[in-house]
User: What shape does this take?
Amino acid sequence: SFREGHRASKLFNHLSAFSEAIPALGWVTMKIPEATDPMNPKPAPYVKEMKDAGMFYTNRVLKDFKEKDNRHVEWARAWIQTLMALHDYVKEHHTTGLAWNKA
Assistant: This one.
């Protein structure tokens, strides 16, 4: 994978934070969950789970660049905020899956 091919990069934790959390965008492809199907989660918890998966590496970026280069800290915080905003949007507007306005 691209990420594994760049292990030596000083941006490896950035790539890892992104690659671990980006599946959150896949919520749009999820089937509408049935109450009896634990293997098919609702979209908002799925987005949160993917955000949490990337947090280990995002926290490393924050730690590694805290006193060195604020651009990296700002990037990590913006990435977290983006995922949190996505979670909030999905939770509010698409609780059981992607909903289309047929109007």
